[in-house]
Amino acid sequence: MADPGLSGVRLVATTLPGMAGTPVSEDVSIPALSRRAGQLAKEHGCDVVVGFSHGATVALDMVLSGDFQGPVVLLGISLTTEDEAAFFRGVVRGSQKVGIWPMAILLRLMPLMARTAKAPELHKKELIEDFKQNRASDALLACVEYLDYIAEDRDFAAELAASGNPVWVVHAEKGDGGLTDAERATLHTAPNVTLVTIPGSVFLLPDEAPQETAAAIASALSHVS
Question: pTM here?
Fold first, then answer.
């Protein structure tokens, strides 16, 4: 958000329920989060919506449901179950069957991943503190709804291409989220979609690739009339 490429741009950030210790007190399905995020965007007069990972899926639904009409930037999005990491899926589905302890173990490991992030030391400390706030029971509720949504029998890539909204899909060669060859081909040929691939391995795109993220947001803003 502090990148010079976004100098002078008013930015609004929100945390999804169940993430970084935020409480889960209402419906945390993707459509419900989409409606609430759409209302937030409307209240603040937001011209562009940006989402990362789970948040990118919320932004996806905002477009497809009509909750948001403008440009969107989708960072590290998974459009199908196949795109999502098998280990993560196993933890979530396992926790549904045997209790929350697999999710609790995963959350304990998240600060270790943050320590290896290619980010300034001060920011890594902030990330670690955020990860430590997660509660396994709340995170599990949110993650189950997320996996159920991307498992739906829908062609999200084709729906995005048909939406007409200006869309930026940002991925690393290896990292959070993925695209199948078919999805990539669909998005590549869509006139309203810009695919951005960051070289190498990047798991926390906004934190480890802030310049590329800011550039995508600036490009999206250039499409606002």
Answer: 0.93
Written as six digits, the tokens of 68 are 């948001």
Q: Which amino acid is at 108?
A: R
Q: For residue 19, count other CB atoms closer than 10 A to its CB.
A: 19
HEC string of the chain equals: CCCHHHCCCCCCCCCCCCCCCCCCCCCCCHHHHHHHHHHHHHHHCCCCEEEECHHHHHHHHHHHHCCCCCCEEEECCECCHHHCCHHHHHHHHHHHHHCCHHHHHHHHHHHHHHHCCCCCHHHHHHHHHHHHCCCHHHHHHHHHHHHHHHCCCCCHHHHHHHHCCCEEEEEEEEECCECCHHHHHHHHHCCCEEEEEEEEEECCHHHHCHHHHHHHHHHHHCCCC
Which neighbouring-strand residues pair with 195? 169
Per-residue pLDDT tens digits of the chain, which is 225 residues long: 888 889 889 999 999 998 888 888 789 999 999 999 999 999 999 999 999 999 999 999 999 999 999 999 999 999 999 999 899 999 999 999 999 999 999 999 888 888 888 888 888 888 889 889 999 999 999 999 999 999 999 999 999 999 999 999 999 888 776 788 999 999 999 999 999 998 888 888 888 899 999 999 999 999 886
Domains of the chain: 4-221 (3.40.50.1820)
